[in-house]
Amino acid sequence: MDTYPSIFNDVIGPVMRGPSSSHCAASLRIARLCRDLMDENIKDVMIEFDPDGSLATTHKSQGSDMGLFGGFMGWEAYDERLPQSDKHLAAAGINVTINICDIGADHPNTYKFTLSNNIETRNLTAISTGGGMIEVIEIDGNAVSIAGDYFETLIYCKESEKIIQYLKASISFDDIQFHKGEISFIEIKSQSFPDPSICDELLSMAEVTVIKFLKPILPVMARKNLQVPFITCHEMLEYNKNKNKSLWQLALDYEANRGNISEAEVFEKMRDIIHIMDKAIQLGLKGTHYEDRILGSQSVLFKEKLDSNQLIGGETNNRIIMYVSAMMEVKSSMGVIVAAPTAGSCGALPGAIFGTGHSLQLDEDEIVKAMLSAGLIGVFIAAHATFAAEVGGCMAETGSGGGMAAAAITEMNGGTLKQSIAAASLALQNSLGIICDPIGNRVEAPCLGRNVMAATNAVSCANMALSNYEHLIPLDEVIETMKAVGDQIHHTLRCTNLGGLSITNAAKKIEALLEEHPNKLYKSC
Hints:
Mean pLDDT is 95; it is low at 520-525. The strands form three sheets. The protein has a six-stranded mixed β-sheet. It has a four-stranded antiparallel β-sheet with strand order 9-10-8-11. A two-stranded antiparallel ribbon has the order 1-12. The chain has two domains: 7-214, CATH 3.30.1330.90; 241-516, 2-methylcitrate dehydratase PrpD (Orthogonal Bundle), CATH 1.10.4100. It has helices spanning 7-11, 21-37, 55-58, 64-72, 85-91, 161-170, 196-203, 233-239, 247-259, 263-285, 299-307, 315-332, 348-359, 364-384, 389-392, 398-412, 417-429, 447-466, 475-488, 505-516, and strands at 15-16, 44-49, 95-100, 110-116, 121-130, 133-139, 142-146, 151-157, 175-179, 185-190, 208-214, 337-338. With 525 residues, it is of the alpha+beta class. Helices cover 46% and strands 13% of the residues.
Protein backbone atom coordinates (compact mmCIF):
# COMPACT_ATOMS: atom_id res chain seq x y z
CA MET A 1 0.00 0.00 0.00
CA ASP A 2 1.37 3.41 -0.98
CA THR A 3 1.90 5.93 1.83
CA TYR A 4 2.37 9.64 1.40
CA PRO A 5 3.25 12.26 4.03
CA SER A 6 0.51 14.52 5.34
CA ILE A 7 1.28 18.12 6.23
CA PHE A 8 -0.55 17.66 9.55
CA ASN A 9 0.79 14.19 10.35
CA ASP A 10 4.40 14.36 9.24
CA VAL A 11 5.37 18.03 8.97
CA ILE A 12 3.40 20.53 11.11
CA GLY A 13 2.53 18.70 14.33
CA PRO A 14 1.98 17.09 16.72
CA VAL A 15 0.73 19.53 19.35
CA MET A 16 2.73 18.44 22.36
CA ARG A 17 4.77 19.06 25.48
CA GLY A 18 8.39 18.04 25.93
CA PRO A 19 11.86 18.64 24.56
CA SER A 20 11.83 16.23 21.61
CA SER A 21 9.08 14.99 19.30
CA SER A 22 11.19 11.96 18.32
CA HIS A 23 11.37 11.06 21.99
CA CYS A 24 8.32 12.49 23.80
CA ALA A 25 5.46 12.51 21.28
CA ALA A 26 6.58 9.41 19.40
CA SER A 27 7.08 7.36 22.57
CA LEU A 28 3.67 8.43 23.85
CA ARG A 29 2.03 7.34 20.59
CA ILE A 30 3.81 3.99 20.67
CA ALA A 31 2.77 3.44 24.28
CA ARG A 32 -0.84 4.28 23.40
CA LEU A 33 -0.76 1.39 20.91
CA CYS A 34 0.80 -0.83 23.58
CA ARG A 35 -2.08 0.10 25.87
CA ASP A 36 -4.62 -0.85 23.20
CA LEU A 37 -2.85 -4.15 22.56
CA MET A 38 -3.31 -4.97 26.23
CA ASP A 39 -6.99 -3.90 26.33
CA GLU A 40 -5.96 -0.94 28.53
CA ASN A 41 -4.83 -3.35 31.24
CA ILE A 42 -1.05 -3.13 31.69
CA LYS A 43 0.60 -4.32 34.89
CA ASP A 44 4.23 -4.96 33.95
CA VAL A 45 6.36 -3.58 31.11
CA MET A 46 9.90 -4.47 30.15
CA ILE A 47 11.40 -1.94 27.71
CA GLU A 48 14.62 -2.73 25.85
CA PHE A 49 16.90 -0.24 24.08
CA ASP A 50 19.89 -1.18 21.93
CA PRO A 51 23.23 0.14 23.25
CA ASP A 52 24.20 1.37 19.77
CA GLY A 53 20.99 3.38 19.32
CA SER A 54 20.17 6.89 20.50
CA LEU A 55 17.65 5.88 23.17
CA ALA A 56 20.15 4.06 25.37
CA THR A 57 21.73 7.38 26.36
CA THR A 58 18.83 9.81 25.92
CA HIS A 59 15.60 8.05 26.92
CA LYS A 60 15.37 9.77 30.30
CA SER A 61 16.83 13.22 29.68
CA GLN A 62 15.08 13.84 26.35
CA GLY A 63 11.65 12.68 27.45
CA SER A 64 11.11 9.17 26.09
CA ASP A 65 10.33 7.86 29.56
CA MET A 66 7.91 10.72 30.19
CA GLY A 67 6.10 10.06 26.91
CA LEU A 68 5.98 6.30 27.41
CA PHE A 69 4.54 6.61 30.90
CA GLY A 70 1.87 9.04 29.71
CA GLY A 71 1.00 6.79 26.79
CA PHE A 72 0.64 3.72 28.99
CA MET A 73 -2.06 5.70 30.80
CA GLY A 74 -3.76 6.82 27.59
CA TRP A 75 -2.90 10.53 27.73
CA GLU A 76 -2.56 13.00 24.85
CA ALA A 77 0.86 14.43 23.92
CA TYR A 78 -0.13 17.84 25.31
CA ASP A 79 -1.42 16.60 28.69
CA GLU A 80 -0.38 18.94 31.50
CA ARG A 81 0.41 15.97 33.77
CA LEU A 82 3.23 14.69 31.55
CA PRO A 83 6.13 16.17 33.56
CA GLN A 84 4.90 14.10 36.53
CA SER A 85 4.03 10.99 34.53
CA ASP A 86 6.36 8.75 36.55
CA LYS A 87 4.41 9.47 39.74
CA HIS A 88 1.07 8.88 38.02
CA LEU A 89 2.39 5.62 36.57
CA ALA A 90 3.37 4.35 40.01
CA ALA A 91 -0.02 5.34 41.38
CA ALA A 92 -1.67 3.40 38.54
CA GLY A 93 0.21 0.26 39.61
CA ILE A 94 2.15 -0.14 36.34
CA ASN A 95 5.65 -1.51 36.87
CA VAL A 96 8.30 -0.60 34.28
CA THR A 97 11.78 -2.04 33.82
CA ILE A 98 14.20 -0.55 31.30
CA ASN A 99 17.10 -2.63 30.02
CA ILE A 100 19.94 -1.65 27.71
CA CYS A 101 20.86 -4.76 25.74
CA ASP A 102 21.64 -5.97 22.24
CA ILE A 103 18.28 -6.33 20.49
CA GLY A 104 19.75 -6.28 16.99
CA ALA A 105 18.05 -2.98 16.17
CA ASP A 106 18.57 -1.57 12.69
CA HIS A 107 17.06 1.82 13.56
CA PRO A 108 18.55 4.12 16.26
CA ASN A 109 15.12 4.87 17.73
CA THR A 110 13.93 1.31 18.38
CA TYR A 111 11.62 0.43 21.28
CA LYS A 112 11.09 -3.22 22.21
CA PHE A 113 8.33 -4.02 24.72
CA THR A 114 7.23 -7.05 26.69
CA LEU A 115 3.79 -6.24 28.12
CA SER A 116 1.93 -8.37 30.64
CA ASN A 117 -0.94 -8.53 33.09
CA ASN A 118 -2.63 -11.34 35.01
CA ILE A 119 -4.19 -12.68 31.79
CA GLU A 120 -1.65 -12.44 28.98
CA THR A 121 1.79 -11.39 27.74
CA ARG A 122 2.33 -9.55 24.45
CA ASN A 123 5.38 -8.29 22.57
CA LEU A 124 5.65 -5.17 20.42
CA THR A 125 8.57 -3.46 18.67
CA ALA A 126 8.33 0.02 17.19
CA ILE A 127 10.53 2.81 15.86
CA SER A 128 10.35 6.59 16.09
CA THR A 129 10.93 7.92 12.58
CA GLY A 130 11.12 11.67 13.29
CA GLY A 131 8.83 14.56 14.18
CA GLY A 132 6.59 12.36 16.33
CA MET A 133 5.93 9.83 13.57
CA ILE A 134 6.21 6.13 14.42
CA GLU A 135 6.00 2.67 12.94
CA VAL A 136 5.18 -0.53 14.77
CA ILE A 137 7.33 -3.14 13.04
CA GLU A 138 6.59 -6.30 15.02
CA ILE A 139 3.78 -7.68 17.17
CA ASP A 140 4.06 -11.07 18.89
CA GLY A 141 6.87 -12.17 16.59
CA ASN A 142 5.15 -11.12 13.34
CA ALA A 143 6.46 -8.38 11.05
CA VAL A 144 3.89 -5.60 10.62
CA SER A 145 3.82 -1.99 9.45
CA ILE A 146 1.49 0.12 11.58
CA ALA A 147 1.85 3.92 11.46
CA GLY A 148 -1.25 4.74 13.49
CA ASP A 149 -3.29 6.11 10.59
CA TYR A 150 -5.85 3.29 10.40
CA PHE A 151 -8.22 1.53 12.74
CA GLU A 152 -6.28 -1.70 13.24
CA THR A 153 -8.13 -4.89 14.21
CA LEU A 154 -6.02 -7.93 15.11
CA ILE A 155 -7.88 -11.23 15.12
CA TYR A 156 -5.77 -13.88 16.84
CA CYS A 157 -6.59 -17.22 15.29
CA LYS A 158 -5.24 -20.67 14.44
CA GLU A 159 -6.55 -20.74 10.86
CA SER A 160 -7.25 -17.88 8.48
CA GLU A 161 -8.99 -18.90 5.25
CA LYS A 162 -12.50 -19.35 6.65
CA ILE A 163 -12.27 -16.17 8.75
CA ILE A 164 -10.94 -14.04 5.91
CA GLN A 165 -13.73 -15.23 3.62
CA TYR A 166 -16.25 -14.25 6.30
CA LEU A 167 -14.63 -10.84 6.79
CA LYS A 168 -14.55 -10.05 3.06
CA ALA A 169 -18.26 -10.79 2.86
CA SER A 170 -19.16 -8.88 6.02
CA ILE A 171 -17.12 -5.71 6.46
CA SER A 172 -15.57 -2.75 4.65
CA PHE A 173 -11.80 -2.67 4.86
CA ASP A 174 -8.72 -1.17 3.27
CA ASP A 175 -6.43 -4.16 3.69
CA ILE A 176 -6.45 -7.63 5.24
CA GLN A 177 -3.30 -9.67 5.91
CA PHE A 178 -2.66 -12.95 7.70
CA HIS A 179 0.50 -12.96 9.82
CA LYS A 180 1.45 -16.60 10.37
CA GLY A 181 3.89 -17.38 13.16
CA GLU A 182 4.05 -19.10 16.50
CA ILE A 183 1.29 -16.67 17.46
CA SER A 184 -0.80 -15.88 14.35
CA PHE A 185 -3.33 -13.16 13.68
CA ILE A 186 -5.28 -11.49 10.90
CA GLU A 187 -4.65 -7.75 10.61
CA ILE A 188 -7.44 -5.52 9.26
CA LYS A 189 -6.72 -1.91 8.28
CA SER A 190 -9.96 0.05 7.98
CA GLN A 191 -11.69 3.41 8.48
CA SER A 192 -13.54 2.12 11.56
CA PHE A 193 -13.62 -0.96 13.73
CA PRO A 194 -15.91 -3.86 12.70
CA ASP A 195 -19.42 -3.74 14.11
CA PRO A 196 -19.66 -5.39 17.57
CA SER A 197 -22.03 -8.01 16.17
CA ILE A 198 -19.36 -9.04 13.66
CA CYS A 199 -16.81 -9.29 16.48
CA ASP A 200 -19.19 -11.41 18.53
CA GLU A 201 -19.63 -13.74 15.55
CA LEU A 202 -15.86 -14.00 15.16
CA LEU A 203 -15.33 -14.78 18.83
CA SER A 204 -17.87 -17.58 18.58
CA MET A 205 -15.65 -19.34 16.04
CA ALA A 206 -13.43 -22.07 17.46
CA GLU A 207 -10.44 -20.76 15.47
CA VAL A 208 -10.51 -17.29 17.10
CA THR A 209 -8.91 -16.79 20.51
CA VAL A 210 -9.00 -13.00 21.03
CA ILE A 211 -9.51 -9.72 19.12
CA LYS A 212 -7.46 -6.58 19.67
CA PHE A 213 -8.40 -3.04 18.61
CA LEU A 214 -5.63 -0.46 18.02
CA LYS A 215 -7.04 3.05 17.61
CA PRO A 216 -5.53 5.63 15.22
CA ILE A 217 -3.01 8.01 16.78
CA LEU A 218 -2.55 10.41 13.84
CA PRO A 219 -4.86 13.34 12.98
CA VAL A 220 -5.10 12.49 9.25
CA MET A 221 -6.09 8.96 8.23
CA ALA A 222 -4.71 6.88 5.37
CA ARG A 223 -6.97 4.95 3.00
CA LYS A 224 -6.97 2.33 0.27
CA ASN A 225 -5.81 3.51 -3.17
CA LEU A 226 -4.66 6.82 -1.71
CA GLN A 227 -3.41 9.15 -4.43
CA VAL A 228 -1.79 12.58 -4.31
CA PRO A 229 -1.30 15.01 -7.22
CA PHE A 230 2.50 15.04 -6.82
CA ILE A 231 5.20 13.89 -4.41
CA THR A 232 8.33 15.70 -5.65
CA CYS A 233 9.01 19.31 -6.48
CA HIS A 234 9.49 18.37 -10.15
CA GLU A 235 6.11 16.64 -10.23
CA MET A 236 4.54 19.68 -8.56
CA LEU A 237 5.87 21.98 -11.27
CA GLU A 238 4.59 19.65 -13.97
CA TYR A 239 1.20 19.54 -12.25
CA ASN A 240 1.13 23.34 -12.07
CA LYS A 241 1.71 23.91 -15.77
CA ASN A 242 -1.13 26.09 -17.11
CA LYS A 243 -2.59 26.35 -13.58
CA ASN A 244 -0.34 29.17 -12.33
CA LYS A 245 -1.00 28.38 -8.67
CA SER A 246 1.06 29.73 -5.81
CA LEU A 247 2.87 27.46 -3.36
CA TRP A 248 0.19 27.73 -0.67
CA GLN A 249 -2.54 26.87 -3.18
CA LEU A 250 -0.57 23.82 -4.27
CA ALA A 251 -0.32 22.86 -0.60
CA LEU A 252 -4.10 23.00 -0.38
CA ASP A 253 -4.38 20.76 -3.46
CA TYR A 254 -1.96 18.25 -1.99
CA GLU A 255 -3.38 18.05 1.53
CA ALA A 256 -7.02 18.04 0.44
CA ASN A 257 -6.25 15.00 -1.73
CA ARG A 258 -4.07 13.38 0.92
CA GLY A 259 -6.58 13.81 3.73
CA ASN A 260 -9.76 13.45 1.68
CA ILE A 261 -11.04 16.75 3.09
CA SER A 262 -11.99 20.09 1.55
CA GLU A 263 -9.51 22.88 0.90
CA ALA A 264 -11.45 25.03 3.35
CA GLU A 265 -10.97 22.38 6.05
CA VAL A 266 -7.24 22.27 5.34
CA PHE A 267 -7.00 26.05 5.61
CA GLU A 268 -8.91 26.19 8.90
CA LYS A 269 -6.95 23.28 10.35
CA MET A 270 -3.77 25.25 9.71
CA ARG A 271 -5.37 28.33 11.26
CA ASP A 272 -5.87 26.32 14.47
CA ILE A 273 -2.19 25.34 14.36
CA ILE A 274 -0.92 28.92 14.01
CA HIS A 275 -3.09 30.00 16.95
CA ILE A 276 -1.24 27.49 19.14
CA MET A 277 2.11 28.70 17.79
CA ASP A 278 1.25 32.36 18.34
CA LYS A 279 0.07 31.68 21.89
CA ALA A 280 3.35 29.88 22.66
CA ILE A 281 5.45 32.76 21.33
CA GLN A 282 3.52 35.32 23.38
CA LEU A 283 3.78 33.11 26.46
CA GLY A 284 7.53 32.83 25.99
CA LEU A 285 7.94 36.60 25.74
CA LYS A 286 6.33 36.98 29.17
CA GLY A 287 9.08 34.82 30.66
CA THR A 288 9.11 31.10 31.42
CA HIS A 289 10.39 29.09 34.36
CA TYR A 290 11.16 25.41 34.69
CA GLU A 291 13.60 24.05 37.24
CA ASP A 292 15.04 21.13 35.30
CA ARG A 293 16.62 22.97 32.38
CA ILE A 294 19.92 24.55 31.45
CA LEU A 295 18.98 27.89 29.91
CA GLY A 296 16.84 30.51 31.59
CA SER A 297 14.31 32.86 29.98
CA GLN A 298 16.50 34.79 27.54
CA SER A 299 13.95 36.11 25.04
CA VAL A 300 12.77 38.60 27.69
CA LEU A 301 16.29 40.05 27.83
CA PHE A 302 16.42 40.19 24.04
CA LYS A 303 13.08 42.03 23.95
CA GLU A 304 14.39 44.68 26.36
CA LYS A 305 17.35 45.33 24.06
CA LEU A 306 15.18 45.34 20.95
CA ASP A 307 12.63 47.74 22.46
CA SER A 308 15.41 50.17 23.43
CA ASN A 309 17.05 50.03 19.96
CA GLN A 310 20.29 48.53 21.29
CA LEU A 311 20.56 45.72 18.73
CA ILE A 312 21.96 45.62 15.20
CA GLY A 313 20.71 43.67 12.21
CA GLY A 314 17.31 45.12 11.37
CA GLU A 315 13.92 44.98 13.06
CA THR A 316 12.59 41.94 11.14
CA ASN A 317 15.66 39.82 11.71
CA ASN A 318 15.80 40.65 15.41
CA ARG A 319 12.09 40.07 15.87
CA ILE A 320 12.60 36.63 14.33
CA ILE A 321 15.45 35.85 16.74
CA MET A 322 13.28 36.93 19.66
CA TYR A 323 10.32 34.80 18.53
CA VAL A 324 12.51 31.75 17.91
CA SER A 325 13.94 32.09 21.41
CA ALA A 326 10.53 32.52 23.00
CA MET A 327 9.17 29.38 21.32
CA MET A 328 12.18 27.29 22.30
CA GLU A 329 11.90 28.47 25.91
CA VAL A 330 8.25 27.42 26.08
CA LYS A 331 9.28 23.99 24.78
CA SER A 332 12.01 23.70 27.41
CA SER A 333 9.60 24.70 30.18
CA MET A 334 7.15 21.92 29.19
CA GLY A 335 4.66 24.32 27.64
CA VAL A 336 2.42 23.40 24.71
CA ILE A 337 4.13 23.78 21.33
CA VAL A 338 3.75 22.48 17.79
CA ALA A 339 6.52 20.29 16.40
CA ALA A 340 7.38 22.06 13.15
CA PRO A 341 8.81 19.85 11.82
CA THR A 342 10.10 18.58 15.19
CA ALA A 343 10.07 19.75 18.80
CA GLY A 344 13.84 20.25 18.74
CA SER A 345 13.36 22.59 15.76
CA CYS A 346 10.02 24.07 16.84
CA GLY A 347 11.34 27.63 16.95
CA ALA A 348 12.86 28.25 13.53
CA LEU A 349 9.82 27.96 11.27
CA PRO A 350 7.16 29.76 13.35
CA GLY A 351 9.72 32.30 14.55
CA ALA A 352 10.63 33.16 10.97
CA ILE A 353 7.05 33.25 9.68
CA PHE A 354 5.51 35.16 12.58
CA GLY A 355 8.48 37.51 12.81
CA THR A 356 8.22 38.34 9.12
CA GLY A 357 4.44 38.53 9.18
CA HIS A 358 4.33 40.87 12.15
CA SER A 359 7.06 43.09 10.75
CA LEU A 360 5.22 43.36 7.44
CA GLN A 361 1.90 43.82 9.31
CA LEU A 362 0.31 40.95 7.40
CA ASP A 363 -3.07 39.61 8.46
CA GLU A 364 -3.68 36.16 9.88
CA ASP A 365 -4.71 34.62 6.57
CA GLU A 366 -1.30 35.43 5.11
CA ILE A 367 0.42 33.65 7.99
CA VAL A 368 -1.81 30.62 7.42
CA LYS A 369 -0.85 30.64 3.73
CA ALA A 370 2.84 30.89 4.61
CA MET A 371 2.63 27.91 6.98
CA LEU A 372 0.86 25.87 4.30
CA SER A 373 3.64 26.71 1.84
CA ALA A 374 6.25 25.65 4.38
CA GLY A 375 4.31 22.47 5.01
CA LEU A 376 4.43 21.47 1.36
CA ILE A 377 8.22 21.86 1.22
CA GLY A 378 8.26 19.69 4.33
CA VAL A 379 6.23 17.01 2.56
CA PHE A 380 8.99 16.63 -0.03
CA ILE A 381 11.58 16.33 2.74
CA ALA A 382 9.50 13.81 4.72
CA ALA A 383 8.90 11.72 1.60
CA HIS A 384 12.52 11.55 0.45
CA ALA A 385 14.75 12.28 3.48
CA THR A 386 14.00 12.50 7.23
CA PHE A 387 13.21 14.89 10.07
CA ALA A 388 14.94 12.71 12.68
CA ALA A 389 18.21 14.04 14.07
CA GLU A 390 18.94 10.52 15.27
CA VAL A 391 19.05 9.52 11.59
CA GLY A 392 20.25 12.65 9.78
CA GLY A 393 21.74 14.99 12.39
CA CYS A 394 20.44 18.48 13.14
CA MET A 395 20.46 19.12 9.39
CA ALA A 396 17.28 17.03 9.33
CA GLU A 397 15.57 19.17 11.98
CA THR A 398 16.67 22.81 12.02
CA GLY A 399 17.99 22.52 8.47
CA SER A 400 14.60 21.34 7.25
CA GLY A 401 12.81 24.02 9.25
CA GLY A 402 15.02 26.68 7.68
CA GLY A 403 14.39 25.41 4.16
CA MET A 404 10.65 25.36 4.74
CA ALA A 405 10.74 28.87 6.24
CA ALA A 406 12.80 30.27 3.36
CA ALA A 407 10.16 29.26 0.81
CA ALA A 408 7.37 30.68 2.97
CA ILE A 409 9.11 34.02 3.63
CA THR A 410 9.83 34.45 -0.07
CA GLU A 411 6.17 34.00 -0.89
CA MET A 412 5.14 36.35 1.97
CA ASN A 413 7.29 39.03 0.34
CA GLY A 414 5.65 38.67 -3.06
CA GLY A 415 8.08 36.15 -4.53
CA THR A 416 7.13 33.79 -7.33
CA LEU A 417 6.80 30.03 -7.06
CA LYS A 418 10.17 29.66 -8.77
CA GLN A 419 11.80 32.04 -6.28
CA SER A 420 10.23 30.25 -3.30
CA ILE A 421 11.65 26.92 -4.47
CA ALA A 422 15.04 28.53 -5.06
CA ALA A 423 15.02 29.91 -1.49
CA ALA A 424 14.27 26.47 -0.05
CA SER A 425 17.06 24.90 -2.12
CA LEU A 426 19.59 27.55 -1.03
CA ALA A 427 18.67 27.23 2.65
CA LEU A 428 18.95 23.43 2.62
CA GLN A 429 22.27 23.62 0.78
CA ASN A 430 23.56 25.82 3.60
CA SER A 431 22.49 23.27 6.22
CA LEU A 432 24.12 20.10 4.93
CA GLY A 433 26.09 18.13 7.49
CA ILE A 434 24.96 19.90 10.67
CA ILE A 435 25.40 17.45 13.55
CA CYS A 436 23.18 16.88 16.60
CA ASP A 437 25.11 17.20 19.88
CA PRO A 438 22.92 18.53 22.71
CA ILE A 439 24.77 19.91 25.73
CA GLY A 440 24.03 18.18 29.01
CA ASN A 441 21.87 15.67 27.12
CA ARG A 442 19.11 18.31 26.96
CA VAL A 443 17.44 19.66 23.82
CA GLU A 444 18.28 23.28 24.67
CA ALA A 445 21.79 24.14 23.48
CA PRO A 446 23.19 24.36 20.88
CA CYS A 447 19.61 23.70 19.72
CA LEU A 448 18.48 27.27 20.42
CA GLY A 449 21.38 28.73 18.45
CA ARG A 450 20.79 26.37 15.55
CA ASN A 451 17.11 27.28 15.45
CA VAL A 452 18.12 30.96 15.32
CA MET A 453 20.67 30.17 12.63
CA ALA A 454 18.07 28.27 10.58
CA ALA A 455 15.56 31.13 10.81
CA THR A 456 18.06 33.84 9.91
CA ASN A 457 19.47 31.64 7.15
CA ALA A 458 15.90 31.47 5.82
CA VAL A 459 15.70 35.27 5.71
CA SER A 460 19.03 35.52 3.89
CA CYS A 461 18.08 32.86 1.36
CA ALA A 462 14.66 34.44 0.81
CA ASN A 463 16.35 37.76 0.01
CA MET A 464 18.83 36.02 -2.28
CA ALA A 465 16.01 34.26 -4.12
CA LEU A 466 13.98 37.47 -4.38
CA SER A 467 17.09 39.01 -5.98
CA ASN A 468 17.18 36.09 -8.45
CA TYR A 469 20.36 34.48 -7.16
CA GLU A 470 20.99 31.14 -8.89
CA HIS A 471 20.36 28.16 -6.65
CA LEU A 472 21.98 25.77 -9.19
CA ILE A 473 20.88 22.48 -7.59
CA PRO A 474 17.18 21.56 -7.96
CA LEU A 475 15.32 21.19 -4.67
CA ASP A 476 14.66 17.47 -5.21
CA GLU A 477 18.37 16.80 -5.65
CA VAL A 478 19.25 18.79 -2.53
CA ILE A 479 16.77 16.71 -0.53
CA GLU A 480 18.27 13.51 -1.92
CA THR A 481 21.68 14.82 -0.90
CA MET A 482 20.40 15.55 2.62
CA LYS A 483 19.48 11.90 2.93
CA ALA A 484 22.86 10.73 1.61
CA VAL A 485 24.83 13.08 3.88
CA GLY A 486 22.75 12.09 6.91
CA ASP A 487 23.50 8.43 6.26
CA GLN A 488 27.22 9.25 6.38
CA ILE A 489 27.20 11.18 9.66
CA HIS A 490 28.78 9.08 12.41
CA HIS A 491 26.29 7.77 14.97
CA THR A 492 28.09 9.64 17.79
CA LEU A 493 27.06 12.89 16.06
CA ARG A 494 23.38 11.99 15.71
CA CYS A 495 21.70 12.83 19.03
CA THR A 496 23.42 10.14 21.09
CA ASN A 497 25.26 12.41 23.58
CA LEU A 498 28.48 10.69 22.47
CA GLY A 499 30.17 13.34 20.31
CA GLY A 500 30.56 16.99 19.36
CA LEU A 501 29.77 19.57 22.03
CA SER A 502 28.10 16.86 24.12
CA ILE A 503 31.44 15.48 25.26
CA THR A 504 33.31 18.72 25.99
CA ASN A 505 34.50 19.19 29.57
CA ALA A 506 32.01 22.01 30.09
CA ALA A 507 29.10 19.92 28.80
CA LYS A 508 30.01 17.00 31.04
CA LYS A 509 30.13 19.33 34.06
CA ILE A 510 26.65 20.57 33.20
CA GLU A 511 25.42 17.02 32.76
CA ALA A 512 26.88 15.97 36.10
CA LEU A 513 25.29 18.95 37.85
CA LEU A 514 21.90 18.12 36.35
CA GLU A 515 22.24 14.50 37.47
CA GLU A 516 23.20 15.57 40.97
CA HIS A 517 20.63 18.37 41.24
CA PRO A 518 17.92 17.63 38.65
CA ASN A 519 15.71 20.48 39.86
CA LYS A 520 18.41 23.14 39.97
CA LEU A 521 18.57 25.63 37.13
CA TYR A 522 22.07 25.70 35.68
CA LYS A 523 23.42 29.24 35.61
CA SER A 524 26.97 29.21 34.24
CA CYS A 525 30.20 27.21 34.07
